[in-house]
Write a structure and sequence with these properties.
The protein is α+β, with helices and mostly antiparallel strands. It has twelve helices and 19 strands.
Length: 575
């Protein structure tokens, strides 16, 4: 598919500044990061040297204003270049969202609408999703996801370089995501530490695909090369904690002006050699590539393949917990030196033995006492066994009967269906699937579905997220013994588990919950049986793998790895 950009003016080329990856800076996809002083200076210089038509003033809106009677504006985080960005609340789905606003007569309004709608069609979970793009009441607004639990890459890098494994995950995930976007004809053109977010599960999300460039009127004749160089700058910063250009940007210090573009392993000791080489091959810098013996990487797809070809980089080993030394512990011995000696107490010498006739009399007396004691003890033991034997046997029989009755009641109680009172989607990474469809998963006779997003790789979801799921409320604590889940898509394979949790909106990860049952299936139905029924009110259905299916007009989903749930039911034991 031919490359296409999403804006009208290449700011970097007009201002004569550093390449786009170095000077794009500015405000992030949802406007959460302010422009640096250097970027402000660059923009002012560009305005002074090249006159531009004035932009319409952004609409005068205020906190509390509602768009489409649904999106309530909460806080303005950016107001620049004739548009504003807000944190808002989707009152219909009760979740936070981000909103970009600009006048309908803004010279870039049509470009922004087109870019937003194209990005929304991509549907790749590695990007912050565009939820709505509308023109009404002389306004154009774009609504996108808001991830309150995710962290921008900028503050992470400002605190220091990343570990090699984390830097590897960053460049691998971002390059693969951008390669997928370019295959659909979409580019970013403003990739920087403010447009990359890291979730708690370790997944990297990219915001502002196509839309950021359209809002600022940025385009490039070689969008693949521009995005690849930007990824190289991200990797360079992850390895060194420095921005790979002389100017300070994104909260990072730039390189000394007299140093030039030194490789990461020359800037900081201990940098992974393979990742250092990839960063330099991606940082083309208008042909001034310092590593002549290897070909530069000019597209995200080439970079993703080069990352995959690296020898495996293992995650850091977890550190064993350390405990304070107590006073009674002796220090360990040094190598080559004997350990501390332990003094063994010397037993006292035995008393002197009696000799002669007195000694013989003493020995015979002791022997007679021992024989009498043994005889008396034997008689008492026999008497006890004769008198209490019948009672003991009766008691053992009663205990066995009680134990058998209890065991039968626990394992073979009468199963009964458990009514589901309510349900809510569970998204610990802040990226839900379709919360408004949760009610379709129970009590509808199989006519409607809750559908997940469509993923490009699978069946395991680990490369994107830990899993997807729904929490069900049984109304009161019930002794759950099993569950049945009906899926729309079959094939290899669906992995699903049941967990007991503490609320309809749990704050803990599944790893901190009590697992009830787990299974894998290639069919449309999953039967889960709990070995030891557990009393709980809330049950989480957690999916970690999905089969690959074709495009489905019923659920309006594209081809890929996905799953849809319709009938969920649980069984329990009657008391």
């Amino acid at each position: 598919m031919a490359e296409r950009s999403t804006a009208a003016v290449d700011v970097a080329n007009e201002s004569g500044q550093a390449p786009l990856a170095a000077g794009a800076g500015g405000v992030t996809g949802d406007g959460a990061t302010a422009q640096s002083e250097t970027q402000d200076a660059e923009r002012k210089t560009s305005e002074e040297t090249a006159p531009t038509p004035p932009h319409p003033e952004p609409p005068e809106l205020h906190s509390g204003h509602r768009l489409a009677r649904r999106y309530r504006l909460e806080e303005c985080v950016t107001r620049v270049d004739g548009f504003s960005s807000w944190r808002a609340v989707d009152e219909k789905l009760r979740r936070a969202v981000g909103v970009h606003l600009l006048p309908a007569d803004h010279p870039r309004a049509r470009t922004v609408l087109s870019a937003a709608r194209s990005a929304a069609l991509l549907g790749d979970p590695r990007f912050v999703q565009v939820l709505d793009a509308v023109e009404e009441n002389e306004l154009v607004y774009v609504v996108h996801e808001w991830l309150p639990d995710a962290t921008e890459l900028g503050p992470l890098l400002a605190s220091g370089p990343l570990e090699p494994y984390e830097a590897y995950q960053l460049v691998s995930q971002v390059s693969q995501a951008m390669a997928a976007a370019h295959r659909e004809g979409l580019s970013h053109l403003r990739l920087n530490p403010g447009s990359v977010l890291r979730s708690e599960s370790g997944q990297y999300r990219i915001r502002g695909l196509a839309v950021d460039a359209a809002l600022r009127g940025i385009e490039s004749e070689r969008p693949k090369r521009t995005d690849t160089e930007a990824i190289g700058a991200l990797l360079y910063s992850a390895l060194t904690g420095r921005w790979p250009y002389p100017e300070d940007a994104h909260g990072l210090k730039g390189l000394p002006k007299d140093l030039g573009l030194a490789s990461p392993d020359q800037v900081r000791a201990g940098v992974h050699r393979g990742l250092s080489g990839l960063a330099m091959r991606a940082l083309i810098n208008d042909g001034a590539h310092p590593s002549r013996h290897e070909q530069p990487l000019t597209t995200p797809e080439e970079l993703a393949k080069a990352v995959a070809a690296l020898p495996r980089i293992r995650p850091p080993e977890p550190q064993a917990p350390t405990f304070p030394q107590t006073a009674y512990r002796q220090p360990p011995a040094r190598p080559g030196q004997p350990g501390p000696t332990r003094q063994v107490p010397v037993p006292p010498p035995p008393p002197p033995a009696l000799s002669g006739r007195a000694g013989k009399a003493f020995k015979w007396s002791v022997a007679a006492l021992l024989i009498a004691a043994l005889g008396l003890g034997s008689w008492q033991v026999a008497d006890t066994l004769m008198n209490r034997g019948g009672q003991s046997g009766s008691t053992q029989q009663q205990q066995q009967q009680q134990k058998g009755s209890t065991s039968t009641g626990t394992q073979h109680g009468t199963p009964k269906p458990l009514a589901i009172q309510n349900a809510k989607e569970y998204a610990p990474d802040g990226s839900p699937q379709h919360p408004d469809q949760v009610q379709n998963t129970y009590g509808n006779g199989g006519a409607k579905y809750w559908i997940t997003h469509t993923f490009d790789d699978g069946p395991e979801l680990a490369s994107y997220k830990a899993g997807v799921g729904i929490v069900y409320d049984l109304g009161s604590a019930q002794k759950v013994s099993g569950g049945t889940i009906t899926f729309r898509y079959s094939g290899s394979y669906t992995a699903v588990s049941l967990y007991a949790t503490d609320s309809l909106s749990p704050s803990t990860q599944p790893s901190g919950m009590h697992q009830l049952a787990s299974t894998r299936t290639d069919s449309n139905t999953a039967q889960l049986s709990v070995k030891s029924p557990v009393s709980t009110r809330f049950v989480l259905v957690w999916i970690t793998a999905m089969p690959k299916s074709d495009a489905d007009p019923t659920t309006y989903s594209r081809a890929g790895y996905k799953q849809a749930i319709t009938n969920v039911s649980f069984t329990g034991l009657s008391s």
